[in-house]
Amino acid sequence: MIFAPRKRGALFLLLLFAVCHSFAAKAQGLSADQLEAEIFQTWHIKVTGHDLAAKIVPLIPPADLPVSMTDISAANETACLTSVVTALSVYPVSLVSTLISQIAIADQIYAASIRIGGFQVPGLLALNCDQANAAASFDEDSIHNELAGLLLLKYNSDLSAWQKLNEAGFKYGDINSVKAELRDPQGRAGDEALYSNGFVSRLGLTGVTNDFDTFAGQIFGHPAETAELLKLYPALRGKTRLLMTIYLDIAPGLKTMFDQSGLTAAAR
Length: 268
Hints:
By secondary structure, the protein is an alpha/beta fold. 53% of the residues lie in helices and 12% in strands.
């Protein structure tokens, strides 16, 4: 596996992150057209928000659930693209450019009549931007989730070690396993029960890929908050260490973010 950042020095990587974070800050004042131009200039990513039924839906493999998409509205477009810039700026430029060549932004995305936050197929990330002005954090987490899915597709990452970190007998998607994970002997409920059993989302209970992707959304969307969670819930540490190892093997430049946010120390 050959990846450009492996050959770069620490100073180059720090400068690269500084440029990206500066762009993320500047993005707050740009128009939708300006944001599209900057996204293309920075990551060589084409943004598509219109004629999605004709341009994007046919790219989805026939075996997948049927997907419908509503074109992006002017009310959501700028806020959605700002979220895209904010989320992508967390990563080394080379990683993003390697994984994504096109982003589709929609007002609504449904899979088999179920509203979803986004999806991905090789080279394409699609994002549901409904109420983008009020849902920036959700949109950014969705981008991290879908980018994690693209990373797994691109590099065929083996998640067998990930599955071994679950409690003995747990089966993804099994109703009895799901109920058991949501039942906590200390009487805790909701997120607290999930954290104590090594999950960050109910969606993570449905499949190993969803588990990995939701961890990515938590770690990259809320790194400092996640570091605090790791101190309180030891069951989260193994998966966090493994996720960071997988990402660092592909993009070593992420070590700076992991270290500075406290994730590296908290995951030990």
